[in-house]
Amino acid sequence: MRVFKFGGASVKSAEAVKNMGSIIQAHDNGPLIIVVSAMGKTTNALERVLELREAGKDYQREWQAVKDYHGNIIQDLFSSDENETFLAIESLFGHAELILRQTFAEQGKAYDQFVPYGELISTTIIAGYLRQLQLKAEWIDARRYIKTDSVFKDAKVRWEVTEELLKLNLPTILKENIVVTQGFVASDLSDNTTTLAREGSDFSAAIFAHCLNADSVTIWKDVPGILNADPKRISDTAKFEAISYREAAEMTFYGASVIHPKTIKPLANKNIPLKVRSFERPGEKGTVIHLKGSEQPIPCFMFKDKQALMVIRVKDLSFVQEESLRKIFHILAEHRIRINLTQNTAVSVSVCADWDSVKFQKAKQDLEKDFEMETHTELSLVTVKNPTSNALKAALANKEAVLEQRTKSLCQFVVSES
Ligand SMILES: Nc1ncnc2c1ncn2[C@@H]1O[C@H](COP(=O)(O)OP(=O)(O)O)[C@@H](O)[C@H]1O
Ligand SMILES: N[C@@H](CC(=O)OP(=O)(O)O)C(=O)O
């Protein structure tokens, strides 16, 4: 059994969905699960609608734009006598509107009940379109199978129950059908919808693959494979034929946004190869992530934006030692702050982490009981693996680092965001 994952860019228009349809037709030879994200930038648009609603502002224009965008894609994809998909989409928009009118007490719950409509709608359109192509496509609701805790917007998978549910139900459906399902979306044990954090659809593909012991996962992207840098940031890039799980995990951790960082581990644990291929050039091989690493160490560039730097200082002249480090990291972990780099001196600890105003505010309150602290925002973390002096010049682009850390094989710089 194989798992294919199609992200927002690969289904952003009717043309793109048709291209995806031809990729599926070319691979219709054995059990297949297709995990799909919301179309184009729909998740951003839905977040905006919710923000406006939560601020008590008028959201109708933005909401109508989301409806029109999908409406135009449907018009383009389906012959006029096809109405099953039209009705299903209308009903999904109706449900989403009902959610917009409700209020939810828990932090993040409104988000998780509303934003997944991007995926519910995209998969309904795609399953309908594949059936129009005479493929046997069955839409399934990922929330029935992927079970998590109840931490909205960043839920943790409950692996045992998820595996049990998937193994019980999916093999029978897969015997006869191509399964089409949502990335990013899950539910807790009380059936409240949860999400696996932004860009979490790659991780969903890995969950299905891990639990069902897939032969491979293929993620179809707008790039030819894993490159040694994001082509949007560095002009001259090289593609890897193969990289190891460890190399891929490291690259994604430091910001190679081509794959979600959580995707690698569930696949590596079962030795399932992860392929990254181009949906624009589906005939090409792309990159395979498996046990064997890249042959030659070439410079590799990673960029992580939306970073903040916390400088935490001891209040008296006691030194930063085990006890203060324990206290600091305990507080940061409690507030689920994602740390990307740390550095300490005799009297201070600097932490570069993903910026989140709410989490940072709460952590600050706790830290200020024992420490003094400063926070700097609008920063990027630039990481260069296998550095050369030319590579460092290209990565920094004349920016001055506010913090840096160097080893022979890895250099990291915190710089202002471009
Ligand atoms: N090392 C890298 N190799 C290839 N692409 C990269 C790398 N780092 C970042 N990217 C970016 O990842 C993008 C693809 O990921 P993403 O846009 O999240 O896909 P999707 O949302 O369609 O799944 C590429 O367009 C590219 O700009
Ligand atoms: N739609 C979600 C989940 C996702 O993974 O999307 P994409 O595959 O387009 O990055 C998001 O934008 O966060």
Give an overview in words:
It holds the Pfam family AA_kinase. Its EC number is 2.7.2.4. Residues 2-277 form the Aspartate/glutamate/uridylate kinase domain. The protein has helices spanning 14-26, 42-54, 60-77, 84-101, 109-114, 117-132, 159-176, 201-211, 245-253, 264-268, 322-334, 357-367, 389-396, and strands at residues 2-6, 32-36, 137-139, 147-148, 178-182, 185-188, 193-195, 216-221, 242-244, 274-278, 287-290, 300-314, 339-344, 348-354, 371-385, 403-406, 410-416. It folds into 2 domains: 2-214, Acetylglutamate kinase-like (Carbamate kinase); 300-416, VC0802-like (2-Layer Sandwich). It has an 8-stranded mixed sheet, with helices on both faces. The mean pLDDT is 94. By secondary structure, it is α/β, with parallel strands linked by helices. The chain is built from 13 helices and 17 strands. Bound molecules: adenosine-5'-diphosphate and aspartyl phosphate. The site of adenosine-5'-diphosphate has 17 residues, from loops. Aspartyl phosphate (PHD) binds next to loops.
